[in-house]
Design a protein that fits this description.
CATH superfamily of one domain: NAD(P)-binding Rossmann-like Domain
Strand content: 15-25%
Bound molecules: magnesium ion
Order of helices and strands: EHEHEHEHEHEHEHEHHHHEEEHHHHH
CATH architecture of one domain: 3-Layer(aba) Sandwich
Number of strands: 11
Shape: globular
Radius of gyration: 20 Å
Largest sheet: 7 strands, parallel
């Protein structure tokens, strides 16, 4: 029986994680559940799993959570509680699905404490990939299993292979709702248009990122650090059906692909169970019912995100953190109706040019760079 702490339990990935855990009660028990503001969902999952601790990151919601779970479990609040729940000796696996970079401290602490970290928060690797991978490598027992669908696909294609056997890794992209739109029309797209993802049902931030293809830019950085690959060995190909998640081309030209129905519970299940495999939940894919499987090259003129990624992959250091911070603010401003959809790229491009690139030295340095990039992104007019 493995004990799991789930950070970011109330979001789209968190709820799918709850499905996987509930389907495998003989294999997993829940040590702690943490989320920010969705108290209803925390209470629902607390009822389901009877965890030792339930944590909110919101001081405003803390009294309500205490009241509703009084006598049932220990109720805690804040980042220190999340770090303690990620490093407790009873815990075997930490699944981190906190939106944005807020998961960095518990993830680093969990790795240092020798935990297996199933990581869905790609921004953590984009902010501090070198530091995070170093923490994983230096800690006995500490390891990261990617929960992003593409990276889970790469992880499965590369299982047991040496780095020098890999010619190139391809992440697939659905292309999002604007794949077939004209450039000018994309620039002025509404929030409603951007939230209409054709294949995946996800949270708001990642859905906007998919529409702008900034999600794929972040995923390329994530792949660089997870699999130790440089810009020339990383590519993106559009698969509108979202059935092929990743491909790995080996040095002899052989190409491996990972396919499944687009269901995040598969990547979550493998993140929890690796190196074993679970038998539920998992829907089979009927290839004969798949009418077509198409691939296209992405269009860097319509979607400048991939050029930002290329610059960030080549420069490394603090540039990925700057790209990510500028994008988070730009998405927030777009959702608030302050800027146009196309302004997301203008903000990211302008902030990436204005913050000098440094090597990755410490978390404090990266957080300072992150804050500087955010402030520039808020000031952009
Ligand atoms: Mg993904």
């Amino acid at each position: 029986m493995q004990r799991v702490t789930v950070l970011g339990a109330s979001g789209s990935i968190g709820k799918s994680t709850a499905d996987v855990l509930a389907a495998n009660p003989d294999k997993y028990s829940v040590y702690a559940l943490a989320a920010k503001e969705n108290i209803d969902e925390l209470c629902r999952q607390s009822e389901l799993f009877s965890p030792c601790q339930v944590i909110t990151a919101s001081e405003d919601k803390f009294p309500e959570l205490q009241r509703r779970l009084a006598g049932k479990t220990q109720v805690l609040c804040g980042m220190d509680a999340m770090i303690a729940a990620a490093t407790a000796p009873e815990v075997d696996i930490v699944l981190c699905a906190i939106i944005g970079t807020a998961g960095i401290l518990p993830v680093l602490a969990a790795l240092k404490a020798g935990k297996k970290v199933a990581l869905a928060s790609k921004e953590v690797l984009v902010l501090a990939g070198e530091l995070v991978m170093k923490a994983a490598a230096e800690s006995p027992g500490g390891m990261i299993v990617p929960v992003d669908s593409e990276h889970s696909g790469v992880f499965q294609c590369l299982a047991g292979r040496r780095n020098d056997e890999i010619r190139k890794v391809w992440l697939t992209a659905s292309g999002g709702p604007f794949r077939t739109w004209e450039k000018e029309k994309i620039f002025h797209a509404s929030l409603k248009d951007a939230l209409a993802h054709p294949t995946w049902n996800m949270g708001r931030k990642i859905t906007i990122d998919s529409a702008s293809m900034m999600n794929k830019a972040l995923e390329l950085i994530e792949a660089k650090y997870l699999f130790n690959l440089d810009a020339d060995r990383l590519g993106v190909v559009i698969n509108p059906q979202s059935v092929v998640h990743a491909l790995a081309e080996l040095t002899d030209g052989s190409m491996l692909a990972q396919l499944s129905v687009p269901d995040m519970r598969l990547a979550i299940a493998y993140g929890l169970s690796y190196p074993e495999r679970l038998d539920k939940p998992g829907s089979s894919m009927d290839l004969s019912k798949l009418a077509e499987l198409k691939f296209f090259a992405p269009d860097p003129v319509k979607f400048p995100s991939l050029e930002f990624a290329d610059a960030a992959l080549r420069a490394g250091g603090t540039l990925p953190a700057v790209m990510n911070a500028a994008n988070e603010v730009a998405v927030e401003r777009f959702c608030a109706g302050e800027i146009e959809f196309g302004d997301i790229w203008r903000i990211v491009g302008s902030v990436m040019e204005s913050v000098p690139v440094e090597g990755q030295e410490s978390l404090e340095q990266l957080l300072a760079v992150d804050a500087k990039a955010r402030s520039k992104a808020w000031q952009w007019r």
